[in-house]
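Re: your question about 6-phosphogluconolactonase

S., sorry for the slow reply, the queue was backed up all week. Below is exactly what I fed in.
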Amino acid sequence: MTASPVIVSCQDRSAVAQRAAGDLIAHIEGVPAGTAVHIAVTGGGVGIATLAELAKSPRLAEASPGRVHLWFSDERYVDAGSQDRNDIQAAATWGPGFVIPEANIHRVAGADSGLSAEAAATNYETEIGRAKAAFDVVLLGMGPDGHVASLFPGHPGVSDKRTGVIAVHDSPKPPPDRVSFTMPLIRSSDRVWVIASGAEKAPAVKAALSPASTAEDVPASAARGQLESRFYLDTESSSLLD
Ligand SMILES: O=C(O)[C@H](O)[C@@H](O)[C@H](O)[C@H](O)COP(=O)(O)O
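Result:
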């Protein structure tokens, strides 16, 4: 069983990022010191803005950040240093003084590693297993087509039934090669928080919250957590909801 979605209403994109980052920190603060916290983060405009807010907050430094682990729910399978990668864009917002230790930031291998995207996905899945990472929170952006992570509507990856990490090829959004959590892995996490802002997301938000949608047609409609499912929306992205 997964939890029904709750809408967190925000004014605009920066309010979505601030609220989601504040809630992530509140979650970390609520976990007893000494207990690991595993959070899967995301790229995209609002995803990276949320990570920037996280890094800016002085509260994170006081919440035992050494036990916080960050993962990427998807990664663009390009070279390790590429500005197109989610981890590079995230690191640019964090800066060198980021309080979560580098060893706790779990990156997918780059295409220049010599590994196939499949091998990189398998290695990342193994790393998750080794860390016994039951995700506290999976944070997901959402595309105007309703995609989450690199699971696109009508694309084979979205129907993968394994709880793991897969290679995605021929992605409808560039770059074509990606590595992504599967939907069962997303749904195995305690909390799934989707963050979406802007008028171009309004039809996808409506579809993601409609019981008539399927994961294959609207991947975000299946993005639910075991304990909690939240949609952080701004005025524009929620404008088509009843
Ligand atoms: O891998 C990618 O191509 C992006 O990261 C993408 O999946 C993004 O997260 C969503 O499209 C939402 O992006 P915005 O927040 O910029 O709308």
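The chain has one domain: 5-233. The pocket of 6-phosphogluconic acid is lined by residues 42-47, 74, 76, 86, 141-143, 173 (CB under 6 Å).

Happy to talk it through on Thursday.
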